Amino acid sequence: MSNDLLEQITASLVDSDPDGTAELTRQAIGAGMEPMTIIDRGLVPGMDIVGEKFRTGEYFLPHLIIAASGMKQSMELLEPELSRRGEKAQTLGTAVIGTVKGDIHEIGKSLVATMIAANGFQVHDLGVDVPTEAFVAKVKETGANLLGLSALLTTTMTAQREIIEALEEAGIRDQVKVMVGGAPVSQEWARTIGADGYAEDAVGAVELCKELVA
Amino acid sequence: MRPKLNILSDQLAEQIIAEGFELLMDPGIRVHNEEARRLLGDAGADVDLESQIARIPETIARRALETAPSEFYLYNFEGEAAVHYGGDSVQFDPGSTAVTVLDSETQEQRVPLTADFVRYVKLVEMIPQLDAQSTAMICFDVPEEIGDLYRLYLALNYTRKPMITGAFRKDTWWTMKEMLVAMAGSGEALAAKPTAVFDVCPSPPLLWSDLTCQNMIDCARHGIPSELVSMPLAGATSPVTLAAAVVQHTAECLSGVTICQLAQEGAPIVWGGSPATFDMRHGTTPMGAVGTWMIDCAYTQVGKALALPTHAYLGMSDAKVVDAQCGLESAGGTIMAALAGVNMVTGAGMMDFESCVSYEKLVIDAEIIGSAKRLVAGIEARDQPIALTLMRELGHRADYLAQPHTLKWFSKEFYLPSAVIDRGSLDAWKKQGAKTAFERARDRVNQLVAAYRPSPISDDLRVELREITTRAARKFGMDELPQLPED
What we know:
By secondary structure, chain A is of the alpha/beta class. Chain A is 58% helix and 11% strand.
């Protein structure tokens, strides 16, 4: 029975049925299953399969995003159970992410936020047009070890440099790895401004996050 | 008969327009510009000051459609009507606002500088297939705050053709207008014979940002045409179905026309855009995708149904080098745009989505444009009877090459490409160095740029343009502009 449920949770992620994932998670909790078991043997294998299908070209971004929303709904149900047991879902790291000030482009940033959250990072998404000070404050507050800065305009990408300088001034530059992205941004630009990494897309950003915290 | 693509059934087009009007009321349009909110509120729209959402009744938008001109001309800098916005006229200008240029030697993308853009403007001047210039790239050797006006300054020193341009800030628009007024002699002269169009871009979904909305209002008040560049991204910032993306485009453009006409009745405005389908594998905005072309053709049909001039970003490629993908995507979009009767097709020379321009691609695209223009000129009888007289005269002799009839008609009937297109024999091709299309294009770029004749503007005017631009540059820490390249 319990194995069945876990397999169904996995399948619900693979089948793009996020409401199903949530419902099955409720059933599993109701059946007394350990939250960590549900995560490790139900959710994570599902996300792995979805990721693999994306890599091989069978799945597309909507499959990833919808599976990630299933994962998120499920985790929201599981977190109270975890804290009741004094447990914590293992995260690979904590990331603060946002689109820099003066720039209202959202898609790329949100895609990256969703993808890294679905891959085991705790994510604080500050949204768009985020002032430099807000990034610094959030990194301080959360003790984040990753900071993702999105800029879609040549006129706003310079804010990425400002934020890195502001982290230095605040004395927390060593605490956090800074990743930059966005259409006009390049590896060369990342090097120029002293960022720790650059990824060209959301899937690349996940790889980059894992490398940076390894 | 002019071949014409109507991609939507009349019934579907009507429904798209009806739903576009409905979106203006619910959920309404976000308007982040104070003056536009005031204009809309005064006209009877329900404006929520906190959410900045304007609910615009159909009657107000309909009235705007009535006062917006269905056609207007853009003039070249020699005072001649050069571009006709309206009807099914099809004209082309280069893709705009690239942040990189493809280096002719290394074929790698690099940051554009003054000399690159000047060379590009000269090349555009020399390409007869192109009807207008655009401020095609951003030069990185001046402060970014004057990136928009500096490109216009450079282009005005070298162009005769009209300009398609745009401002990145509210204040720089005024400097750009000052330059255009200097060229025209007075503000009235500029309004009577506009030489430039400003692109104004709503943000999907259903948002007018402060900057671009103000640009549109300022254009309207000074008789300078503006061009709506609505860009639903199907599946990301708009619904994924092509028809629904066109509904969103309709609503965004209707709101633009409304604000524009409320600022100044009768101000020229173009129904345009740069939509795309969202690439579901890479999260990119493919301009070479057939779905992108279909959205463009569909909204063009909607714009025509509303009796407005039209524009589209088409004829670009997502390729990173000038290769087979680059050619096939550019050709597909260009031919579709021509068949749809888009008045101004922006995109020649542009690649890597909308981020890079290439001199070589531009001259290859010129051949595609030449072919597309020939295509939409259609097939005519030319003679009456069409063939009988001549064919009875020649009987069964295959002697048409020697006929005056052939000499009279061949250059009108056929599109005659430049040497960029290889139609020689294998041996002839080998003898000429077995060159690829890219290499032939590079040769042609060099020939055309070398043949450029300086534009006839006076030294006084050159000095005035430089002074206007230098004043703006000084505000942002640049005391002396880069030297213009030697001719």
